Amino acid sequence: MEVNKIYCESNLETMAKMPDNSVNLVMTSPPYAEARKKTYGGIHPDKYVEWFKPIAKEIYRILTPDGSFILNIGDNTIDGETHLYTFELPIMMKKELGFKFIDPLIWHKKTTPPGRFTNRFKGAWEFCYHFSKNIKVKFNPQAVAQPASEVSKARYLRHKDFHVMKSQTGSGFNNPSKNGRRERNNGSGIAGTNDERLNMLEEALPSNVLHLSPETMNVNHPAPYPADLPAFFIKAFTSEGDLVYDPFMGSGTTAEVALRLNRKFIGSELNKGYIRVANDRISEHLNNLFINNDLPLVYE
């Protein structure tokens, strides 16, 4: 099927035309429960998991063995309490569909509208769940590294010559192994820090909490996410030339960022108005494919 195109149809229709193991990254933010009723029907939180199940099943099929699925989703308050659908959803995907649940990243919104509520504080974060078919995914952490602070450099240098190199915090790190990698002894199945990387003092790798401001530009869409959000995941989990799919393309942020980072995209969107907005945004990039790679990241 044609790439670098947004298909005006349901995501199930689009994915039905896509081969198995063909997409390197699925990056999307579906309508949250009870949201976008005119376009997507406003799914009730009690029915959300079952509504999303066939979509997730197709995403699993089209994802490459080393691919990643990033699901940005927010919670919903019903009768004064937080509904559990944002927790029930990853449990279903893990237990029923076979996804590996890699990481529950958090998008901390650095700026949020003021508000007062009777029994809670204003919401300032959303989940960015990371799923995959396998534990070993394509992972480029250096692509999203930031300059290390002087404080971090000084802290490392104070311990650089400490030959034991064993954490005193209970993290599970042992002495460096023969291959230069510290091994965890807590049964996590994840190797520890590569000690050679500790010598890369100029770079600091991000945590799984991304500090980003919400979208502030008017893109004629009720709930766009900022370009820095898909940029982070596209850089971290794909390579140039890879294919990115957004099953709820909306105003085209994922597509625009993918093109600016020298990736290909496919999108699905039911709303013709959103597609017109998205096509306007990406038209200039389609004329300059694989040239512009200067999208900045401002996460902390």
- Mean pLDDT value: 80
Give the count of helical stretches: 8
Specify the structural class: alpha/beta
Cα radius of gyration in angstroms: 21 Å
Shape: globular
Q: How much helical structure, as a percent, in the residues? A: 25-40%
Q: Give the percentage of residues in beta strands.
A: 15-25%
H-E order: EHEHHEEEHEEEHEEEEEHEHEH
- The oligomeric status of these chains comes to single chain
Major sheet size, sense and barrel closure: 8 strands, mixed
Enumerate the spans where pLDDT stays under 50 for 5 or more consecutive residues: 175-180, 194-199, 290-300
Termini Cα gap: 38 Å
Strand order across the biggest sheet? 1-15-14-2-3-7-6-13
Structure overview:
The radius of gyration is 21 Å and the shape is globular. The protein is 27% helix and 24% strand. It has helices at 11-16, 37-40, 45-62, 85-95, 150-159, 228-237, 253-260, 272-286, and strands at 5-7, 23-28, 63-73, 77-78, 81-82, 100-109, 125-132, 146-147, 173-176, 181-184, 191-194, 203-204, 209-212, 243-246, 264-268. It contains 8 helices and 15 strands. The model is unreliable at 175-180, 194-199 and 290-300 (pLDDT under 50). The chain has 300 residues and is of the alpha/beta class.
Features:
24% strand, eight-stranded mixed sheet, three-stranded antiparallel sheet, 15 strands, alpha/beta, 300 residues, 27% helix
